[in-house]
Amino acid sequence: MKREIDDKTILDKFTEGFCNVVDKHIKYFVCSGFVAISSGRSRGTEDIDMIIEKVSKERFLDLHDDLVKNGFECIQSETPEEVFNYLDEGMSIRYVWKGEHLPEMEVHFVKDILDEMQLHDRIKMPFTKLDIYFAPLEGNIAFKEEWLKSDKDLEDARHLRIVYEGQFSEDKINNFKKMIRRIRLRK
């Protein structure tokens, strides 16, 4: 008898399960710390960040209902219309496995051209062994180095640069950084 070893973490399983449901309804990408963690960086997190395309209330309600049917719940509200209103007003919403407190999927609608570009250029990263879409490496690195800038984020960016050396464009990172300064930082 051959035994398979399941080397996926709780975060991996939660993220894949959530993304599999979302992917049936709308475009999304996972970004920020989980990109570095799923690429081998050893650090903790309790939430995964996801950006989704902005959709109509009806499409979102279909997605929300499917998430609930698949064992997820929104911690802000049980009322799907209220959950949509949070998103529509530019706030994030958080989902967990029903009855659990962690991990959390923090979901946002796209907010500007930077998010739209990353949604358009989203990628799957075979090295992670996860069948989910991530923001492009260039976007992840640029946001961590130019926008977030905490010690943890700078270490995440450094890790991504090492692990994916030769697989990203420094010009694209610099272009993202210029856009971040112009659009998000207004410089």
Main sheet strand line-up? 1-2-5-4-3
**Residue-averaged pLDDT, rounded?**
95
Low-confidence spans: none
CATH class of the domain at 10-136: Alpha Beta
Supply the number of helical segments. Answer: 8
CATH topology of the domain at 10-136: Nuclear Transport Factor 2, Chain: A
Shape: globular
Q: Would you report the number of β strands?
A: 5
Evaluate the radius of gyration: 17 Å
| N-to-C order of helices and strands | HEHEHEHEEHHHH
What is the helix content?
40-55%
In angstroms, what separates the terminal alpha carbons?
62 Å
Q: Strand-residue fraction?
A: 5-15%
Structural class computed from helices and strand pairing: alpha+beta
What is the CATH architecture annotation of the domain at 10-136? Roll
Descriptive report:
There is one protein chain. With 187 residues, the chain is α+β, with helices and mostly antiparallel strands. The chain is 48% helix and 13% strand. Strands 1-2-5-4-3 form a 5-stranded mixed beta sheet, with helices on both faces.
What topology does this entry show?
Layout: H1 10-23, E1 28-31, H2 33-38, E2 47-52, H3 57-69, E3 72-74, H4 80-88, E4 93-97, E5 104-109, H5 113-120, H6 137-148, H7 151-163, H8 170-184
Parallel strand pairs: 2-5
Antiparallel strand pairs: 1-2, 3-4, 4-5
Helix pairs in contact: 6-7, 6-8
